[in-house]
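Minutes, project huddle
Topic: does the predicted pose make sense with calcium ion bound?
PN asked that the exact inputs be recorded in the minutes so nobody has to dig through chat later. Recorded below.
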Amino acid sequence: MQHKWWHGKTAYQIYPKSFCDTNGDGIGDLRGVISKLDYLRELGVELVWLSPVYRSPLADQGYDISDYYSIDARFGTMADMDELIEKARERGISIVMDLVVNHCSDEHEWFRKACEDPEGEYGQFFYIRDWHEGEPFPCNWRSYFGGPCWDLLPGHTDKIYFHAFHKKQPDLNWENPALRREIYKMINWWLDKGLGGFRIDAIINIKKLLPFCDLPADRDDGLCDIRAMLKRAEGLNVFLDEMAEASFRKYDAFSVGEVFNEKTEDLPKIIGDRGCFSSMFDFSEHLLGLDRRGWHRSRLPTAEEYKRAAFAAQARSAGVGFLSNIIENHDEPRGVSHYLPEGERSDAAKKLLGGLNFLLRGLPFLYQGQEIGMENRTDWTLKDFDDISTLDQYKVALRAGCTEEEALAAVSRFSRDNARTPFQWDAGPGAGFTAGAPWLGLNENYREINLAEQRGREGSVYEFYRSLITLRKSADYGETLVYGECVPYLPEQKNLMAYFRRGEKTLLVAGNFQAEAQDMLLPSPARTLVLNNLDELSAERDTVHLKPWQLVVFEL
Ligand code: TEU
Ligand code: CA
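Predicted holo structure (tokens), as shared on screen:
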């Protein structure tokens, strides 16, 4: 495998709106990110992905861009962005931005011009169709945020436009080479400013099954999940390869795709040495327990399911390329609340989950707050939520016959807002996030779970993550942890998640993923105990007595 500049790095996702507010308006901003660069360097991360800060009406928290070439005033200015890129570089940190090009905002000038002249040049930047009251839409696909993917073109009664997400996020027509050229020009403008690369948003949606057609309905609304269409759409890689050739490859830029439901045979084209992206996120664990009919029918995954999904993803990508491994992001509930059972979210269990994911082969991607073990809020009321996806799922649950309490319980478990509560810097007012009123309510446990309490405290979740990052960069084990193959060990042993990392050295990572103790037979004598999430270890000859939620790493 060709060695790349980013391979040995640990990545960190910042959701700027909830990271650090420096002007008291309750909204995190770029100056807040700049003020925390020394913190990020101390943690040891070297790739920082910023969720969108471009000009936007924030209908979908910035994933609805109205100007790709400017920074939204709520986050700061372009001068702040340039300063952030520069000061990050001085600390050995590359900034990665979010590339949201399946759609733009309905307030983007392209869309405004399309509404003025649907037959004109900019009308071709979107999917606009003639339509008359009472006629069926060109297809019965359901938006990710609920309802049909079609809405009236603003200012018209006989034209409609397509949106896979919210109606304020009109899909861009990637079949149009003029649109694609505009996108590549914008990417290169940002790369010329010194970005390290991009995270590519929702990119599987850019290739539609055309001409538009109905697919079998999967609910009583007569619509079907849009992902049923994506399975049938062919040719995505033609666009992705053209984009990579016109931009990323020219700059040796890092690119990580948000790719769901990919076909295994397509992996080499996506993340192989000649693939269109440097990496793609492994979402297989997140998809466990999810029911397409809605969050009210979805459940939390078990440890065994988690283990099998992780090992399957490792097997699929072995010898092909690098996955980016996560336990959470801005679209998911907090990992420790999702993968650890109620009542078992101790520091030991949080370190076990984080370590088992971090030490897999691939790029470790931490999400802000993961390093201090932030959890889901447990006191949501309906009016607390901001997220459009959550509010849609609440309605879906009610329509399916849930009571208001049942619907609220369902969305509280899966809401994206769980990951968007403000970062908990300290136990002071506003958790050190803001001097004002936060745009989204704090998790009240910030008095117990915050960085200030954990920094420098032996055995804290924060210090454990620092040791993981240090280990991955160490002279002794770095090569093995970055490039070594990942091979399951005793996969049949229930709730034991153990795997070898075989490179220059041989490491055995072993996690007791349950609340009961269990023994593990060593495959060969352990030369060194490299890591332990507890401050003790009981073993004799070839047997290790693992305590509940104990994670150990041996050099064999
Ligand atoms: O998400 C793409 C996406 O399809 C899934 O994350 C999921 O369907 C969505 O989160 C609804 O639950 C990306 C961004 O990560 C997400 O924040 C945006 O809302 C979405 O694209 C639209 O840009
Ligand atoms: Ca602010």
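Observations noted during the meeting:
- Residues 395 and 531 are 46 Å apart (CA to CA).
- DSSP finds 18 helices and 23 strands in the chain.
No decisions taken; revisit at the next huddle.
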